[in-house]
Design a protein that fits this description.
Elements lengths: L2 E8 L7 H17 L4 E3 L13 H4 L6 H13 L2 E10 L2 E10 L2 E7 L20 E2 L4 E6 L6 H9 L4 E5 L7 H15 L3 E4 L2 E3 L4 E3 L3 E3 L5 E4 L5 E8 L1 H9 L13
Parallel strand pairs: 1-2, 2-3, 7-8, 8-9
Antiparallel strand pairs: 1-14, 3-4, 4-5, 6-7, 9-12, 10-11, 12-13
GO molecular function: acyltransferase activity
Keywords: Acyltransferase, Lipoprotein, Transferase
InterPro entries: C-N_Hydrolase, C-N_Hydrolase_sf
Length: 258
């Protein structure tokens, strides 16, 4: 493996304004791709926000019209796009994480740990596993799940090359965001792309703080609180070099932990 040019799109999501958000996401994704991004990450439920009052029109079923639009960008620029949308599957709604690689659906992850009010609307996913792309394995984490170190650890032990967290992490707890994002990288010795939203909705305001972090836990790009795109070229070979010097994963004594 060599360098991986990644981009995080920190969006101001317009509540329930689906077409507006999709157009913005497509435009910003195209810009990131034209600037050389191989991996493009969008925030959690970027197309609608948590549009509880109109879940029926917010949710999509396979083959997901919103993702088909992003697939065109992904195919045109031969890149991977990651994010989440609201999915309707049979009689249930899910927070559906997705990876689109070179125009194709490469993998999905349904959020396993809904937070607060989400529990009244979303069903829980029942599987935690990384998405295997052609030359990269991605561990996908969705917002509140950042607080569960077991998730990132399982994804790491399952062969992830990079952890990607997509979120709508609000202001009152933004200091937790900064700490947890770095901690998940440090404790797993793995690069971390953490993509939060900015702006506000009916209940909360969001200060962004999207970051790209290397396998040492160093912040290499920080979006601050404004809408925009951050880039960084991750050295994927660095992970193995770090683990050769201090291999936290192999030093674990799992027989003592449970």
């Amino acid at each position: 493996m060599t360098g991986l040019n990644v981009a995080c799109i920190q969006m101001d999501i317009s509540h329930c304004n689906k077409q507006y958000n999709i157009d913005k996401a497509v435009s910003m994704s195209e810009k990131a791709a034209m600037d050389g991004a191989q991996i493009i990450v969008l925030p959690e439920v970027f197309s609608t926000g948590f549009c509880y009052e109109n879940m029926k029109s917010s949710a999509e079923t396979y083959p997901y019209p919103t993702l088909e639009k992003l697939a065109v960008v992904s195919k045109t620029y031969d890149c991977t796009i990651i994010g989440s949308i609201i999915e309707k599957k049979e009689h249930s709604y899910y927070n559906l994480g997705f990876c689109i690689e070179s125009g194709e659906f490469a993998g999905f992850y349904r959020k396993t740990h809904p937070f607060g009010r989400e529990k009244s609307y979303f069903s829980k996913g029942d599987s935690i596993a990384p998405v295997k792309l052609q030359n990269l394995t991605v561990g996908l984490v969705i917002c509140y799940e950042l607080r569960f170190p077991e998730i990132a650890r399982k994804l790491t032990l399952s062969g992830s090359d990079v952890i990607v967290t997509i979120a709508e992490f609000p202001d009152p707890r933004i200091n937790h965001w900064y700490t947890l994002v770095k901690a998940r990288s440090i404790e797993n010795q793995i690069p971390h792309i953490a993509c939060n939203r900015t702006g506000s909705d009916l209940c909360s305001t969001y200060s962004g703080g999207s970051m790209i972090i290397d396998a040492w836990g160093n912040v290499k790009a920080d979006a601050g609180n404004s809408e925009g795109i951050i880039f960084y070229n991750i050295d994927l070979d660095e992970t193995s070099k770090i683990r050769e010097k201090m291999n936290v994963l192999s030093d674990r004594r799992t027989n003592l932990y449970w």
